[in-house]
Amino acid sequence: MLLLSGALPLLLAMLMAWLLPESVRYLLLNGADQSQIQNILQKINALALQQNFRLEAQSRQLSALQSMRMVFSSQYLAGTLSLWLCFFCGLMIFYGIMNWMPVLFKEADMPPHLGPVVSGLFALGGVGAMLNGWLMDHFNGNYVIAVCTFFTAICVALIGPALHLSLTFFIILMICAGTLQNTAQSSLPVLAAKFYPTAVRTTGVSWMCGIGRFGAVAGTMCMGYLVNNNIGWSQIFTILAIPAAVMTLCMLIKNMYEAARDSARFSLSQQDAE
Asked: Where would you find the membrane-spanning parts of this chain (predicted)?
């Protein structure tokens, strides 16, 4: 199983290197041939063959230090911190529950054959991510993820009381919480990529993912601390639902910040036009 799990990503990496084109924005930024850009865009729209493309806002290559300065500039700081905290909290919830699943299954008197099934379904965020991708194309991505995390908070908070009430209800809550949380988590890098300009996109997304990884450590340690102090499962999962509520708040703050920023840009462009 471990060999198979290692071989499949290696095969995927080779296929991506061969088949996956560069971002059109990246190609334009680096002065690629128009024919290369047209070959990519014609797969979306045949009219691409009849046009030349350029970036509306010209950018330039930045050093690592310059990229970090832009990520932390006043223009992006609030969004950067919101994304970092959101990704941190998401991994805190996921690994806090995932690493303590054997104990939870024992507490719920779950039959041994159901454990691997529920564990697998808990990480079933891929299906939700496909739906989220469509929703984020048509609606405000901040709100879409906020809705996911809001319902994640509700499901996580109810896991504790459900442990000794109903095995069926417990399993449903676990699967719903995992699917919703993983859907939101897998959508965050896409949201971050849309938030940052092309020149610093990789820097912004990578730092968000890197800082967020500390949440995985914090989630496991937090659960261990609470269990060792003999805190009841209902209280533990009520506490663990707080990071999901924080994620919702972060998305709403980011949306307010972006709305204010875009409004200020529009005002400035109107003044320039006058």
From this structure: 76-97, 117-136, 143-163, 169-193, 205-227, 233-253
Between the alpha carbon of residue 138 and those of residues 2, 66, 142, 150, 225, the distances in Å are 39, 33, 12, 20, 42
* Tokens of residue 142, six digits: 């901040």
| Cα torsion through 258, 262, 263, 264, rounded to 10 | 100
In this predicted model, what pLDDT tens digit does every residue of 90-132 receive, in sequence order? 999 999 888 888 888 888 788 878 878 888 777 766 677 788 8
Q: Which fold has domain 64-263?
A: Growth Hormone; Chain: A; (1.20.1250)
In the chain, list all ranges with CATH 1.20.1250.20: 64-263
- The C-alpha atoms of residue 261 and residue 228 are separated, in whole angstroms, by 46
Long-range pairs for 118-122: beta carbons < 8 A, 24 or more residues apart: 118/171, 118/174, 118/175, 121/174, 121/175, 121/178, 121/179, 122/97, 122/98, 122/174, 122/175, 122/177, 122/178, 122/179
The three-class DSSP label of residue 58 is: coil
